[in-house]
Amino acid sequence: MPAVVKCPTCGTEVAWVTENKFRPFCSERCKQIDLGAWASEKYVIGGKPGETSPDRSEDEDD
């Protein structure tokens, strides 16, 4: 039985299967709404530009 997740945009339950090319979203529309939210900076990742996370030292190689 495939896992079921909720679409991050609308909350519709979505089966987590390879046939769903929009996963974790339920549709292309919800995927685009989410992308638009990132583009308009509704979502941000915390921190200051150039700041490294506390668990990663500056001299680590990527």
TrEMBL record:
InterPro entries (alphabetical): DNA_gyrase_inhibitor_YacG, Znf_NHR/GATA
Cofactor(s) annotated in UniProt: Zn(2+)
Keywords: Metal-binding, Zinc
Free-text comment on the cofactor: Binds 1 zinc ion.
Gene Ontology MF terms in the entry: DNA topoisomerase type II (double strand cut, ATP-hydrolyzing) inhibitor activity; zinc ion binding
GO BP of this protein: regulation of DNA-templated transcription
Gene3D superfamilies for the chain: Erythroid Transcription Factor GATA-1, subunit A (3.30.50.10)
Coiled coil: none
Record SUPFAM superfamilies: Glucocorticoid receptor-like (DNA-binding domain) (SSF57716)
Record-listed Zn(2+) binding positions: 7, 10, 26, 30
Tree of life domain: Bacteria
Entry similarity comment: Belongs to the DNA gyrase inhibitor YacG family.
Function: Inhibits all the catalytic activities of DNA gyrase by preventing its interaction with DNA. Acts by binding directly to the C-terminal domain of GyrB, which probably disrupts DNA binding by the gyrase.
The protein's assembly and partners: Interacts with GyrB.
Name the record gives this protein: DNA gyrase inhibitor YacG
